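REQUEST ID: PR-0412
SUBMITTED BY: lab tech R.K.
PRIORITY: routine
TASK: structure prediction, single protein chain
INPUT:
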Amino acid sequence: MLREFDQTNWKLTKVCVIGLGNVGRPTVHCIHERGFPVYGYDIDKRKTLGLNPIATFSDWSQVPSCNIYIVCVNTSWKNGKPDMSNVFDVCHKIARKEKWNEPLVSIESTVAVGTCRKVAEMFDKAHLVHVPHRFWAKEQEKHGVVQERVIGALNNESLIKAKGFYESLGIPLYPVSSLEAAELVKITENAYRFVQIAFVEQLRLLCETHGISFEEVRRGANRKWNVNLLEARDGIKGECLPKDIRYLASLGDAPLLLGAMETDKKYVEHIKSKK
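STATUS: complete
OUTPUT:
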């Protein structure tokens, strides 16, 4: 297996993208376009369709041994706590397949703090990094696969190997000191956005209570150089923001985050009551 990433032999570097959902599909396309032999894997056979000429599999036993594994599976919030079972499951699969090798494993899924350290314990020999995605499907030109990301690494050798690979894709990396720091950066980004939206939802509720135009207040406040209030729409939706603020709040006492979640809940109820 490759001991060190080298652009002179990159076409011999086999890559497998695990999880072919909203992030995995554009990721496997990006890697293919850069000339790497790349495979796709997903337990849902439907998600493996339509990726020709990329070889895809829904049977793990058919996936060839690879030098690099990119983990893009979904994570969730289940029974009042973060559910990392998909990440642990696929990393167990990689560890068994590559028992005698030293692959580079990059977890791009959004995970709870401490997840990557637990994954590292599954491997006798592996290079492990966390490079959380910042993919936004609505603006893929600006916020697609190729954009700056943070990276946390198990050790310096893992960092060097991962930087060589990601930079060959045109993805600039900002290293942080640990796997845990990278995990926290990602959930912080989404929790911050959640709080921003919850603030304007609360403001709109207050404005309506007192018969004042929310939009007038928002536009007036945004005239100040360091204020940028968002629009208050129909509640905070999607998979990422509601899940990630819970990941962050689960780390300890977090009344601000809990208040933001409660505000959004009340705001959604208010919107529904007006229909």
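NOTES: The mean pLDDT is 94.
REVIEWED BY: pending
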